[in-house]
Design brief:
Blueprint: E1 2-8, H1 12-26, E2 31-34, H2 39-45, H3 51-59, E3 62-67, H4 81-88, E4 93-99, E5 112-118, E6 128-131, E7 136-139, H5 145-164, E8 171-176, H6 184-196, E9 203-208, H7 209-218, E10 225-228, H8 230-241, E11 251-255, E12 260-264, H9 281-293, H10 297-313, H11 326-338
Parallel strand pairs: 1-2, 1-3, 3-12, 5-10, 8-9, 8-10
Antiparallel strand pairs: 4-5, 4-11, 6-7, 11-12
Helix pairs in contact: 1-9, 1-11, 5-6, 7-8, 9-10, 10-11
Bound molecules: 1,4-dihydronicotinamide adenine dinucleotide and magnesium ion (MG).
Length: 339
């Protein structure tokens, strides 16, 4: 198994070093190679995603990605490497699970949901321009039948496999804003409802995105699989991850045909970089997701069991109320793996 590791910027290298340590314990045969991308890379070589990195990502069996720091102003020539990787590798399905299994009070509601986000188009196609001497900014949003139908199918297939694994009341919530974005989300909605008809065993519900944000915050236990377009999914998955213990624990998969990239949901966290206190558990969960995707289910379960034990008994990083370092949490996970 060849794993291409792209640490990126900020805490990306800190948390991926932890993830790779764990990977080496549970999959000693894995061939790990490292590749550069991100803001520091852009400043050094003038591109954020060098062609060698793209080539290495293509050739690997799976990619582990840390985080990149993207400037919030327009920098000529800079394009977000993660957005580019998703497009170049056609990783069309962004799968972001949230579960509160690790922090639920015994009588509390069970949260076990997945946000399935379209990953290749929508608002993130990068077609923005200024008009009117710079006083008007226009962004184009692209919705296609092809991308909508494959992401909605991915969501229904996921709901089916979760049902097969014992999840009750399998439901797909189609999230859109077709009442305002009548043409673009109108197409997404039409296609989604057509596909829903192929899955009579799965309950279908529709929700406007603003209501979905409120319900995800208030009643996450009512969701199973929610599917939506790129920008909405980006935002909703961050809302959902609150219930799973926050950004320090949230992991995601970017899946295409026979390809996959795993990354923590969090970013480069410039406020804590270099302090050695970044929570490595989101990146370590990425390793579990990667192993599962490669059908190494036992190894994935070992990683999850070790991470759960550490979450339960500590040590914990400051984002979870503790005072432990990244290294201490990682070592605790490795110690549990050895038991
Ligand atoms: P962020 O996720 O980097 O940080 C948000 C807050 O969560 C910060 O207070 C940070 O310290 C905390 N946090 C994040 N991950 C943590 C971890 N593992 N352990 C403990 N605390 C953690 O989001 P922000 O601040 O909006 O963005 C910072 C930079 O990251 C920006 O340049 C942004 O473009 C980039 N970013 C990159 C992403 C990616 O590479 N996929 C995703 C989101 C943001
Ligand atoms: Mg995000």
């Amino acid at each position: 198994m060849r794993v291409c590791v792209i640490p990126g910027d900020g805490i990306g290298p800190e948390v991926l070093a932890a993830a790779v340590q764990v990977l080496r314990v549970v999959a000693p045969d894995a061939e790990v190679s490292e590749a550069d991308a991100g803001w520091a890379t852009f400043q050094r070589v003038g591109v954020a995603l060098p062609p060698e990195t793209l080539g290495a990502a293509r050739e690997a069996d799976a990619v582990l990605f840390g985080a990149v720091a993207s400037p919030s102003h327009n920098v000529p020539g800079y394009r977000s490497p993660i957005v580019a990787l998703r497009r170049e590798l056609d990783l069309y399905a962004n799968i972001r699970p949230t579960s509160n299994a690790q922090q639920r009070s015994p009588d509390g509601p069970v949260v076990d949901l997945v946000v399935v986000r379209e990953n290749t188009e929508g608002m993130y196609i990068g077609r923005e321009r200024l008009e009117d001497d710079g006083d008007t900014a226009i962004a184009e949003r692209q919705i296609t039948r092809r991308a909508s139908s494959r992401i909605v199918r991915a969501a229904y297939d996921l709901a089916r496999s979760r049902a097969a694994a014992g999840k009750a009341n399998p439901t797909v919530t189609i999230v859109h804003k077709a009442n305002v974005l009548r043409v673009s989300d109108g197409l997404f909605r039409t296609v989604a409802l057509e596909i829903a008809a192929d899955y009579p065993d799965i309950r279908t519900e529709e929700m406007l995105v603003d209501v979905a944000a409120m319900r995800l915050a208030q009643h996450p236990e009512r969701f199973d699989v929610a599917v939506t377009t790129n920008l909405f999914g980006d935002i909703l998955s961050d809302v959902a991850c609150i219930h799973g213990g926050g950004l320090g624990l949230a992991a995601s998969a970017n899946l295409g045909e026979g390809r996959a990239l795993f990354e923590p949901v969090h970013g480069a966290a410039p406020d804590i970089v270099g302090k050695g206190i970044a929570n490595p558990l989101a990146a370590i969960e990425c390793v579990a997701m990667l192993l599962e995707w490669r059908h190494r289910v036992d190894a994935a379960q070992r990683v999850r069991a070790a991470a759960t034990a550490v979450l339960t008994h500590g040590p914990r990083t400051p984002d979870l109320g503790g005072s432990a370092t990244t290294a201490a949490v990682t070592q605790a996970v490795i110690d549990h793996l050895a038991q």
